[in-house]
């Protein structure tokens, strides 16, 4: 029996390094779904539920960090991979930044018990949903990687991945446009709101957009990988 098959690295990666990437992106994706629930709880003024959801988001972030550290610590430079070691590490880092920002959003909103003005509540909810959909799309792209590799980067699968990455870019662009519209609405409300509160609202709006930006970056890294 080959002892390497029972090593921690073998159990982590299985037959493909993308097994570990998929496990990680699923924790990231789970945190994004929890953020949707979190936002709904805050909109309803249910801070007990919101705080519980923030704790669950934090647990996802810790689990994602553990997976990231296992990959980094157990990935020798001599390991044969269908992609380079550096590409794998860049991908895992891009994914990890998404869950970190999800935790930042729920943490800031929980700490300040933030509530958005009624007139922008729905636009911000829609904007958040777009960014969450971008995270879902990034997960779907990663989950197709094994099929892509099995096909030897065949044309049909490669084109399918390209289409999925294109959709990811479309979602990121939609989030950008929604952010611009929300900023315009907030500009009209600034004189009616406490200046410090306005500052933190803008910060959360920026961070929500960061989710779609970072999800799109995962897709961009995949495009670079496919081009090599």
User: Shape from CA axes?
Assistant: globular
CATH class division: Mainly Alpha
Largest sheet: none
- State the low-pLDDT regions, or none: 1-15
User: Mean of residue pLDDT?
Assistant: 86
Summed up, the helix count is 8
Family: Belongs to the UPF0111 family.
InterPro entries: DUF47 (IPR002727), PhoU-like_sf (IPR038078), Put_Phosphate_transp_reg (IPR018445)
Organism: Salinisphaera shabanensis E1L3A
Protein name: Phosphate transport regulator protein
Secondary structure topology:
Blueprint: H1 8-13, H2 18-43, H3 47-73, H4 85-112, H5 118-143, H6 145-150, H7 155-189, H8 195-227
Helix pairs in contact: 2-3, 2-4, 2-5, 3-4, 4-8, 5-7, 5-8, 7-8
Organism: Salinisphaera shabanensis E1L3A
Family: Belongs to the UPF0111 family.
InterPro entries: DUF47, PhoU-like_sf, Put_Phosphate_transp_reg
